[in-house]
Here is the input.
Amino acid sequence: MNKRSTTNFLLLIMVIPLVFYLLKILSFIFVPLFFSMFIALLFLPLMRWLQKKKMPMPLSIMAIVGVITAIFYLGGRLVKISSQEILSADSTFFEQAESKIISLIHSIEHFFGIERLADDRLMDHYFKNVDVFGNLMPTLDFVGNTLTMTLMTVFFVVLFLAGSINFQDVMHSLLFKQKFSSVKTFRKIEKDIIKFIWVKFVISFFTGVGFTLACIFFEVSFPVFWGLFAFLINFVQMVGSIISVIFLSLFALVELDPTGTLLFFIAVIAGVQVLMGSILEPVFLGKTFSINVITVLVMLMLWGFIWGVPGLIMAIPLTVFVKIVLEQFPSTQIIAQLMFGSQKGITDLD
Here is the structure.
């Protein structure tokens, strides 16, 4: 028995890197698959409610796809409004921004003792090696890959909602011997993931609204763009809130003098992030998501390395999924407690 347990442990050590390697290589399949799984989980309660009302399966799926399409349409309208904000900006703004950026670069050069030739223009010095046309193809590839993954995500969402891909049966086949255990765990995963996504959406929405109102009050340009940026980047746990505050603070240097006004503006947007992300979000999520900071950072680095930006967005939902599964086995409950500070097992089905 000892030899068998040792062999199984060694095999596990060998298999885990292989699994992560396959996840990275086949990211074009797994990224839309997991995205679609989380989206489908959001609408599965609505799907069950429609089925209880005796609505045919095709009509139920069409209704949910219509809701998702409406959400994406509203998001597209916001992107269009923010783009129009930037395109309709006065030319004097860009001239002012350029002069402020050049002045900032001069200050940095002076601080680090960087010297340039007298006739060497700043833009030519730092951007002479930038190949605009050479960078065009990677941009087009990125747009094409994004479109492909979006279509695949929609396809997988339809399969999940229609029951063609039954995640509960997959868990029963791979992880759990008893049907009741797989049902219980699936309901727990569904409940927690839905709660996390909705809380994150609401917190991100009000964070974006707070950034927009702060930009309007302090007369910082492109308030809709910065609100939308804060809303989207806030889905990246911990890192997103820091990035949004830093980027908007640097941008505010262009229009606000480096006096008390700028500092007060930075304090306001930082306060919005602290209120939403550090106070209200943990209150709404509760003890179920009491994942320690080290685990969050490790998972962000791991999934960010494997899947890039989509991995950063899905890192916490995937961590919650791992947490719930580990809690169901006596041999792995100690790991869940050490990594996540989690409770033992699932006490109810709800």
About this structure: The first helix runs from residue 2 to 25. The chain has 14 helices and no strands. Residues 293 and 340 are 9 Å apart (CA to CA).
